[in-house]
Amino acid sequence: MACQGMRNYLKDLRSLYINIGDSTNEQAIISSVCGGTLEILLTPNDGPYAHATFILEIAASDDYPRTCPEIRLLTPIFHPNINPQGGYICLSIMDDWNSCYSFLDVIKAVLFLLANPNFDSANNSFGSLPPEYRDRFNEVCKQFLAGFPIKGEVYPANENWCKWARANNCFPVPKLDQNSCESQPPTHSTSDVRETLPFPYT
């Protein structure tokens, strides 16, 4: 990273350490910093992923903030705007990047996206789902966060969410016949998520 880029990076990082808690309502904390790469723990307060914890990776470019950082979610997630292959996130702030933006702006944008999935700007097969399926998205998310198999497709259970759900007596029950997929190895990738969606429930 060039000298000017390093100065900008360190200035932004310093600001992030000071402001991340208050500015995100304690939904984000810095987990680690290695070179120009940050790992941020995100725990949304609202939306279908409320109380689950995800790891966001932000890798600053050499001339940051003139060019946008690379971001991806390291924790598997069932989301219309996050590609299951690599965790790459579809965010308007990245497409319209401006040097006045900061790490904190990126983090707040990702938190907003987690709370408000955008089916009209999907970067995977979720975008072709009929409206009636989208209306049940929150219910589907609970199944995936709990680690339940859905027609042979399994995302690892989100431990923080499972702990919260059990403590609040709202842990879901499986909606599928477990015998139909118990021999399937867990995986969080799929060539077409429409083939793995639990609709209709039985």
TrEMBL record:
Could you confirm whether the keyword Nucleotide-binding appears in this record?
yes
Residues covered by the UBC core domain? 4-150
The GO terms describing molecular function are:
ATP binding; transferase activity
Task: Please give the SMART domains that the UniProt record associates with this protein.
Answer: UBCc (SM00212)
In which residue ranges is the amino acid composition biased (Polar residues)? Answer: 181-190
The active site lies at C90
Keyword Metal-binding assigned to the entry: answer is no
- Region (Disordered), start-end ranges: 181-202
Task: Return the InterPro entries for the record.
Answer: UBC, UBQ-conjugating_AS, UBQ-conjugating_enzyme/RWD
- Gene3D superfamilies per record: Ubiquitin Conjugating Enzyme
Top-rank taxon, per record = Eukaryota
What keywords would UniProt list here?
A: ATP-binding, Nucleotide-binding, Transferase, Ubl conjugation pathway
* Membrane-traversing stretches: none
Of which family is this protein a member? Answer: Belongs to the ubiquitin-conjugating enzyme family.
Name this protein carries in UniProt = UBIQUITIN_CONJUGAT_2 domain-containing protein
